[in-house]
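Researcher: I'd like a candidate sequence for this fold, 301 residues long. If you have to choose between options at a position, lean toward the conservative one.
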């Protein structure tokens, strides 16, 4: 999830544009959702006026001015939320940009526009993490990262991000054997990953991670570009298992770097081509429904 510098000026403009669009959407939503004042016409009494029945402005208590709320924004209170303001400042003042392209980011953004605020789980912590948190403003965005030193480095710069250290005991060169393991019956059983008998299920996350029903899951880690790297085999399988094990509804799962062999094969096998709705560049989007409400439902459609 850590990025190389790619056209910093163009990407910076793209990110600022996304935040500006999000800000406008929040304001527009608030305008439609805020209550309108009720009109209070003066009742007529058969054309007769009775001063004893009429109240003057002085007789009525005047409401005090409401304090400016932080959420949601209203037409009379359009202050930029602190998280969005911090994100704008961060990306304006840095030359380090996210790894995903505008078109790839837009795939996830369209889903976030419909679902946020929501629960968003991201495998990986990087220079785009503040962007994801801000685009899910008001929701919960959690990052799972393999590199403890990298977590500390990011926390110094962006202390508001929620991130956890996780470990992986696999290597990319083991992918073929793990694929064969994943085809076994024990890996087709839908359950909480903590209790799964499948070798691919990750069991070392903080307990709270397993208890949340995640609306979006982004797999952009762990490292997977060389044979001794952990690879994303377990992360992809576990993301699919968590999606299927939710009580109801669907989970949008995204996998980045599908131009690589592991990400390509494992996303098709365990997130299922039948659940894939879109591929943009190196990003695939899957919509996986719960399997808990349908006994006997096949692992892949």
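Model: Candidate sequence:
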């Amino acid at each position: 999830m850590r990025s190389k510098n790619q056209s910093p000026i163009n990407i910076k403009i793209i990110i600022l544009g996304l935040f500006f669009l999000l800000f406008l959407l929040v304001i527009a939503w608030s305008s439609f959702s805020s209550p309108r004042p009720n009109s209070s016409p003066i009742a007529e009494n058969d054309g007769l006026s009775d001063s004893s029945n009429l109240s003057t402005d002085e007789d009525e208590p005047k409401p005090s001015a409401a304090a400016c709320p932080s959420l949601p924004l209203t037409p009379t209170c359009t202050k930029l939320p602190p998280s969005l303001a911090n994100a704008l400042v961060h990306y304006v003042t840095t030359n380090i940009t996210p790894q995903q392209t505008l078109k790839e980011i837009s795939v996830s953004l369209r889903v976030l526009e419909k679902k946020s605020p929501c629960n968003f789980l991201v495998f990986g912590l990087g220079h785009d993490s503040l962007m994801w948190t801000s685009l899910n403003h008001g929701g919960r965005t959690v990052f799972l990262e393999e590199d403890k030193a990298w977590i500390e480095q990011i926390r110094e710069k962006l202390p508001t991000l929620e991130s956890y250290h996780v470990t992986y005991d696999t290597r990319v060169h083991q992918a073929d054997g793990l694929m064969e393991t994943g085809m076994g019956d024990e890996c087709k059983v839908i359950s909480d990953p903590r209790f799964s008998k499948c070798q691919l299920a990750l069991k070392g996350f903080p307990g709270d991670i397993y208890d949340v029903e995640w609306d979006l899951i982004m797999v952009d880690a762990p490292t997977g570009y060389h044979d001794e790297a952990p690879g994303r085999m377990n992360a992809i399988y576990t993301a699919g298992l968590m999606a299927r094990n939710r009580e109801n509804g669907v989970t949008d799962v995204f996998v980045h770097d599908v131009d690589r062999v592991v990400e390509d094969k494992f996303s098709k096998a365990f997130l299922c081509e039948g659940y894939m709705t879109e591929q943009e560049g190196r990003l695939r989007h899957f919509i996986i429904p719960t399997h808990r409400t349908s006994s006997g439902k096949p692992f892949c459609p």
